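#struct-help
A.M.: can someone run this one for me? Single chain, 118 residues.
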Amino acid sequence: MQYLNAFVTGGIICIIGQIIINKTRLTPAHVLVLFVTLGAVLTAVGIYEPIVKFGGAGATVPISGFGYALAKGAVKGVKEDGILGAFTGGISSTAGGITAAIVFGYLMALLFNPKTKP
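D.P.: on it. Structure tokens below:
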């Protein structure tokens, strides 16, 4: 059942993003920023946590899950380090994912011949 919940949750998030792209003049980059921000805001007001509990990876893997992780890290950082933790907590909680993106991006650039679009 967890797989089905993750599939449905991730699918709904993707459908919302596609509808926004199709019905507005927003670019995919705008939608990316919107989803990261919404993930953080919905976490702050307590709405995203139940979605994560229901959907699991279907809610944490999409880009809105990155906003969720940033917000959760900031809250944890404030509890541990005070106000300075608001700035450092989000980055420390997402450092593994950011590092993986940089390392794998670099490896792909070494293995393949990256080209700019004409």
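A.M.: thanks! DSSP finds six helices and no strands in the chain.
D.P.: also worth noting: The mean pLDDT is 93.
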